[in-house]
């Protein structure tokens, strides 16, 4: 009799110790970075949950049944649909944040409230054409949240220099939140059909709005960083940021190209739905791995080498998968592409946040996110429009990623040379920093 009691007591102690460690890990994940970061992290939890629940609620409806792997024309239509929100966000949000940068937090809150409203509007209308504009607005407002969240992160941290690690921590929090929300969403789907996840999504969006109101917002000159002059409303990124942006966009092009190339190749082998799901799961798992890997990298190297490493991972994975292509190789390649995209994106976000003044950050992120979205579609449209064997496509992707590395390193090593204009001062820095003449 004592032996079962002893075993039971040991199991209880082990369970309590495990629960304490898990609680401590979660608390550390949210509280490292101060109160502002904690509020932003909780906002991220609710926002990611809302996105996940909307995706579950709309899965299998008229909206998501448009893109299928059975016709390349439908896939092309889906690619156009994914980039369409940026046709709205680019000119509207970018111009708005340019002119009123202090409204960044307000836009985040309004976007969250709008997502709650449109999630409620979709209830009971899942089989009507009304679903198209509702789903489109949900996509647009989700993008608005992502852009404004990136812009507010440096202001929410108590140590702004830890930007890359903070971006990675937020990405990991999003992965965990999406997993929990998926479990809740599928449970609600089984009990209440598609309206259940959409109702939960509306509640989650309200939670994002509530915690978003607690975030700081840019206050103009008080939050400016030192660096290149910012003339009026014209946004000119520093050279190292522009180069990293182009290289990150290159990683995104390869990401879209490889994913669609693999999808069409699997389709020709009569792969089932589970095989396509494994491909997407591997890409998501790769991004999750990157969110855990990047903080360790950020303590040792700068952002530019991380972007370069992302191109190297893409090239190596493409060459390797071309040698022994199959479902396992396809999943490994999708995972490597997810790692590459995660490393490049998180590193670039940190570089942009550290370089761009707070009152111009929202507009900068609007433009970069638009570029990355268009880059993904451009990469994905190539195998959609031009059927090619996987071996040929993987070889092309490997050589192109290798060439992108060479170009990126070469341009980084070459100093910038600008033609001097007659009206330029002798020394811009001296002119800006010198005291006024007496």
What does it look like?
It is globular, with a radius of gyration of 23 Å. With 438 residues, it is mainly α. The longest helix is centred in the N-terminal third of the chain and has 30 residues, at 2-31. The N and C termini lie far apart (95 Å). It has 14 helices and no strands. The chain has two domains: 34-218, MFS general substrate transporter like domains (Growth Hormone, Chain: A), CATH 1.20.1250.20; 237-414, Growth Hormone, Chain: A (Up-down Bundle). It has helices at residues 2-31, 35-58, 72-99, 104-122, 131-156, 163-192, 195-212, 239-268, 273-298, 303-323, 327-355, 361-385, 390-413, 428-433. The chain is 77% helix and 0% strand.
Gyration radius from CA atoms, angstroms: 23 Å
Which overall shape is indicated by the principal axes computed on the Cα atoms?
globular
The number of distinct β-strands equals: 0
- Are there runs of 5+ residues with pLDDT below 50, and where? 66-71, 220-234, 421-438
Counting structural domains, the number is 2
The top level CATH class name of the largest domain: Mainly Alpha
CATH homolog superfamily of the largest domain: MFS general substrate transporter like domains
Topology order in helix (H) and strand (E) letters: HHHHHHHHHHHHHH
Share of helical residues: over 70%
- How far the N terminus sits from the C terminus, by CA atoms, comes to 95 Å
**CATH-defined topology of the largest domain:** Growth Hormone, Chain: A
Structural class: mainly alpha
Largest sheet: none
Strand content: under 5%
CATH architecture of the largest domain: Up-down Bundle
| Mean pLDDT over the residues | 77
By DSSP (H or I, 4+ residues per run), the number of helices equals: 14
